[in-house]
Amino acid sequence: xxxxxxxxxxxxxxxxxxxxxxxxxxxxxxxxxxxxxxxxxxxxxxxxxxxxxxxxxxxxxxxxxxxxxxxxxxxxxxxxxxxxxxxxxxxxxxxxxxxxxxxxxxxxxxxxxxxxxxxxxxxxxxxxxxxxxxxxxxxxxxxxxxxxxxxxxxxxxxxxxxxxxxxxxxxxxxxxxxxxxxxxxxxxxxxxxxxxxxxxxxxxxxxxxxxxxxxxxxxxxxxxxxxxxxxxxxxxxxxxxxxxxxxxxxxxxxxxxxxxxxx
Length: 263
Hints:
It contains 13 helices and seven strands. The mean pLDDT is 89. Helix 11 crosses helix 13 (247-262). It has helices spanning 7-10, 39-47, 60-70, 76-81, 114-117, 122-125, 132-135, 137-146, 174-177, 186-189, 224-233, 241-244, 247-262, and strands at residues 25-27, 53-55, 86-92, 99-105, 152-161, 191-201, 208-218. Strands 1-5-6-7-3-4-2 form a seven-stranded antiparallel β-sheet. It is globular and about 55 Å long. The two termini are 33 Å apart. Helix content is 34%, strand content 20%. It has one domain (7-262). By secondary structure, it is of the alpha+beta class.
């Protein structure tokens, strides 16, 4: 199985609502990273957000290993300028059996700040996600322990945002951010955001690389089948997680737009 590089191609394989699951698929090397990155957009995104790059000393060696893999000069920051994806490095410290975030080059986050996450272990990184500890934490820990160099795994998800900007850092309550959205205009005022995520272990340093490719489209630009799917699925977002992302503030408008689009 492969994962595409657009919202329309990712949505049929994406998790959005329901019980949390990893939903990983194995990817071949040619399908690892976006083959057509907009490097000018990447450079501009890193230049205008000072906290986009967060590094601990342990990130230097795996960052240089990654740069060599990508044909870039430097370490983690330069690697992230050479690809479409945001890049995170995780590793175990001597004497610990947990993975920590040791490096982040993240220009386009989905509602998180790299400066708040650097140095944290996996479970603390995912603490805001409703249901992670109960349904996913043990499986993720086991996966990280058994991941071998050479194997590449991917997954994707989706969110609804009130902005089409790739850097999504909500600064208003959902009731305010989505106040202008109606069933009539939801096609142009709601934006579907999908993260195409991959995981692989670097062969020399043993660090785990987590990539996040961001794709955003207005709801009305999507294929009719995907609009219909979103109209159905938004009703069943995980309790708590859906609330955190503002689902109650836009759900009725999205459902109404999906029904009008199908008529």
